[in-house]
Design goal:
NAD(P)-bd_dom_sf; NAD(P)-dependent oxidoreductase; 9 strands; N-(1-d-carboxylethyl)-l-norvaline Dehydrogenase, domain 2; NAD; 14 helices; alpha/beta; three-stranded mixed sheet; 6PGD_dom2; 6-PGluconate_DH-like_C_sf
């Protein structure tokens, strides 16, 4: 396939490389081209703007930071997309925006899928992401060569916006799991227990989780290098709180701790830095 890609951050860049290594012709635009010159040496095409990118491809993939970034990118895309093209938004964004873009696409004879991913930077690097897709099922099936390039678990979730809704459910679970780990570690320290021993004893039992296995040791070592930015996690949790069907008491509590961390300069640290706020405040 001839694939265009907009956005090449921690997650996007390895996903781009997987597409290239799977034999696709990949064209990339990013706001800071100087940061992705290494892709050019791999044989991937770089473009100075979105119109230049679109004229070379049949499918456009987007993975940017925030819903407002998605909105801005698609406002530009709709000016240059050709009827019959397909767009896939891998950004974790608002479900209502995904629905809005899908409907605008239909009016312009363009198919748009929302396809947020989970698995962090390690999943992107290893090609083992979970991909959650909303939109027309027939389009989802046609785009499987793209998804399979970097996805291990690929799920069709339903109509437009459904992929985003499942991803937000994922973030709600992660937020509460991280809170529980921090509380447990705080308890262990108060009881004179080594948290590393607790990880060893519990990670394969009923209390085990990917968050404990992947981030528990990093919490202990104060290794806050980002696999997923706090600022982006807060964005996801704000999307969750924007719905009004149910009260999310756990999310309301965790998001305030993360907002406090952002105020302290931790916005571009990994989500495991929650332990820092916990140790400071409890």
């Amino acid at each position: 396939m001839r694939i265009g890609w907009i956005g090449a951050g921690i997650m996007g860049k390895p996903m781009i490389r997987h597409l290239h290594h799977n034999g696709h012709q990949v064209h990339v635009y990013a706001r800071h081209l100087e940061k992705i010159q290494d892709l050019k040496t791999d044989g991937i095409f770089l473009h100075p703007d979105i119109p230049a990118l679109v004229q070379h491809v049949d499918v456009v993939c987007t993975m940017v930071g925030f819903p407002q970034d998605v909105q801005e990118v698609y406002e530009q895309l709709f000016k240059v997309l050709r009827p019959g093209m397909t767009c896939i938004d891998f950004t974790t964004s608002a479900p209502e925006l995904a629905i809005k873009l899908y409907e605008a696409g239909i009016q312009n004879q363009i198919q748009i899928l929302d396809a947020p991913v989970t698995g962090g930077d390690i999943g992107a690097q290893n090609g083992t992401l979970t991909i959650l897709v909303g939109g027309q099922k027939s389009v989802f099936e046609k785009m499987m060569p793209i998804f399979s390039a970097f996805g291990q678990e690929i799920h069709y979730c339903g109509k437009a916006g459904s992929g985003q809704k499942v991803k937000i459910a994922n973030q709600i679970m992660i937020a509460n799991t991280l809170q529980g780990i921090c509380e447990a570690f705080s308890y262990c320290q108060g009881q004179g227990l080594d948290p590393a021993l607790v990880i060893e004893c519990l990670q394969h039992g009923a209390a085990g989780s990917r968050q404990l296995s992947l981030l528990g040791e990093k919490m202990i070592q104060k290794d806050y290098a980002p696999g997923f930015y706090i600022k982006h996690f807060v964005k996801d949790l704000k999307i969750a709180l924007h719905q009004d069907q149910v009260k999310l008491a756990g999310v309301e509590h965790v998001i305030q701790e993360y907002l406090d961390l952002i105020d302290q300069g931790y916005g571009e640290k990994g989500t495991q830095a929650l332990i820092q706020a916990f140790q400071s405040n409890h």
